[in-house]
Amino acid sequence: MRRTLRDVKRIALLGATGSIGRQALEIIAGHPELELVAAASGSQPVDGLAPLTQVGGDLTELLERAQPDVVLNAVVGFAGLPATLWALESGVDLALANKESLVAAGELALAAQERGGALLLPVDSEHSASFQCLEGRSPASVDSLVLTASGGPFRGRSADDLADVKPEEALAHPTWNMGPKITVDSATLANKGLELIEAHFLFGLPYDRLEVLVHPTSIVHALVRFRDGGALAHLGYPDMRVPISYALTYPERAATPVPSLDLVGLTLEFHAPDLEAFPLLALATEAGERGGTAPCVFNAANEVAVEAFLEERISFADIAEIVAASLESLDLSPARDVEELTASDEQARAYAQGALSRA
Ligand code: NAD
Ligand code: MG
Question: Residue 15 Cα, ligand 1 centroid: separation in angstroms?
Fold first, then answer.
């Protein structure tokens, strides 16, 4: 790996104009040992952000030119896949916010990491928290991993009550301020479903040892139950600058502007998720257990449906209907390479597009 004499980490930031991207810029600006060498976005201008920039197109071209020490992949959606695979295959450490690429291509990504030898540092808050609680311990010492969910803006509401909620209601997240796609995913709990699959691949735990609990204040980000009866949890105010900084300064754990937790008067509340009102969580677990390209299909159909929901072309309840229909109708056998995976993604998108007009 290329490192300069001052031991500066050279960072390529993909998705620099997004919610994670902007917070990453703040973290990088605050640390002289972090140097931004490349920045990219999907369509918004990134001129002047870094010596090398790119808008749209194949982001691996930018990565080839930049030869960074760390790639922070904060692109949204399956579009982040080439960059994820490039970093893992090239042995360049990957700070991963783009969960969709790991969900869709879990086996291929882990095989690329095995060949490349790169570190895979999760930026998703629950997975950064889990990574820290697990600290490289073997899956055998773990009873289960609990991912917490805020429950989103519709926590406590019934399926009937949710059928016709509008995008602006779904976009009003109670604890996190994020891009539109993940905010809708948080309202449907598809986000927590994607995160279960993400955790399965990151930590090598089977689905029956992954739990989701609703925890409205988002103070506990994850909790690991060990086989000896002990449990370790990661707590902090919900602020993505903490996991972004952790991944970029790993293993240093540098200071951030985020205040330390005030424990006096703090109470913690947890309850089981309502799988009837939020069917996408159960569908994601099924897709994960099913394996093959089921997670890829789940993700692709969800991306298409969320976009259509944001454009008010389908209802909130239709999102889960379209994902369920896609999983029922499509071939879910494993992809042997990235071409087969991309074909599966495209097929699922085409199917979901067709299902939109029937919704
Ligand atoms: P966002 O919509 O705010 O930003 C997305 C970024 O990706 C933008 O810079 C956009 O230009 C870029 N982009 C989109 N399509 C692209 C393409 N085809 N090629 C290149 N760049 C493209 O999204 P976000 O909320 O910052 O989320 C980014 C990722 O991080 C998502 O995978 C999300 O699930 C994950 N994540 C976000 C948060 C959060 O707090 N925002 C928390 C956990 C995980
Ligand atoms: Mg998360």
Answer: 6
